[in-house]
Amino acid sequence: MATNILDNIDLRKLGELLQQARKKSGMTQADAAKVIDAARTTIVAIEKGERRLKPNELIKLARAYGRAISDFVRSTPVTEPFEVQFRAAYQRNKQEEEQIGPVIQRFEELCHNYLELEKIMDAPIARNYPQEYSVNNMPIEAAAESIAIAERQRLGLGDGPIPMLRDILEQSVGIKVFYLNMPAKYSEIYSYDEQLGGCIAINLSHYEERRRWSMAHGYLHFLAHRRKPVVDFEGQYKKNPESERLAEAFPKYFLMPTSGLLSRFNDMYRTHGKFTPTNLFTLAHYYGVSIEALVYRLEDMELLPSGTWDRLRDRGLKVRKVQQELGLEEIEHRADILPIHYQHLAIEALEQGLITEGRFADFLGVDRLEARRIAEALREHSSGMLEESAYLDLRQA
């Protein structure tokens, strides 16, 4: 006898998912009621989980909301919609909403996909989260440097540069970092939820030096204002709030710690008898930061005279051209849209037959043809291994 999946589904969760989908589609409860030819009070009861949905009603509502039926019936945890979180984060006008709204929606989908993959594979990413740092009544700069030093010590980073910052945040802390295309003025989106954990989206179209800066900026929000969602973009504030000034100060201390930078600056100065533009470019490349960021940092430390960056800019400095002439290669980075652990979970779920090729395509954000190509490549790779050895625990003697 066929089983109706709606007979065993959690009505409260289903109701919440339907309510979220209805609101995202811009429909009222009265609009939804017309779709299934019922009274508005019926939709109210369905969304509260007090009234069981019929299969044909779910089909009609899913179609009206522009969603797949599987979005409602698969085991997906219910979390607060990002739309609700970010509504309070900043005021948006219609133009900004049209620009960033789809990015926020995609970011939310990917975070939920990540959580779903963790549950399918029963392999959540390890969370090495510190307690939130308290910065009450502390000067901004002192607080930013204090947190940066503490985090470097906690993560065993010493006082040198942090290559592959994204991997450090993903694998050593457990932050979920996505690279997404955004309008140029947007740098980063940060969100935290008890189930999803810390999640950051970085603007893929920016240079890696700026992406690293944005990552550190978002990381500070995680460290000091964990439950406050952030959409960071140019011209956001007329007067920066304290939380934002702290986030702006943190990257220079985290990416260029005072002790290490001072030591390397002095080494260069002693070797050459002066500190040249070539030294400046070499040092910026070493730390993986922009020339502008490094100059301002050295000005703050009084190692370069105030106004150095303005003078370089007024002389028509062409940063990329000089970097090419000096043979400075692009700093090492991984610009995948998806985090490494996310990709591994999706691939393993497919290999073990826990998801279909269609769902695999959804997770990776590729079309089915590309998903099939990837799946076939995986199978060819696996065919060279005995089935029993494919999942061998190599730690066992």
- How far apart are the first and last residues' alpha carbons, in Å? 48 Å
Q: Bin the strand percentage.
A: 5-15%
Along the chain, the helix and strand elements come as: HHHHHHHHHEEEHEHHHHHHHHHH
Give the low-confidence spans.
none
Q: Number of DSSP strands?
A: 4
Q: Which descriptor suits the 3D outline?
A: elongated
Q: Summarize the biggest pleated sheet.
A: 4 strands, mixed
| Assembly category | single chain
Mean pLDDT: 85
What is the count of DSSP helices, taking H or I runs of 4+ residues? 20
| Strand order in the sheet with the most strands | 1-3-2-4
Could you say which structural class the secondary elements and strand pairing correspond to? alpha+beta
Radius of gyration of CA atoms, rounded to a whole number: 25 Å
In helices, the fraction of residues equals: 55-70%
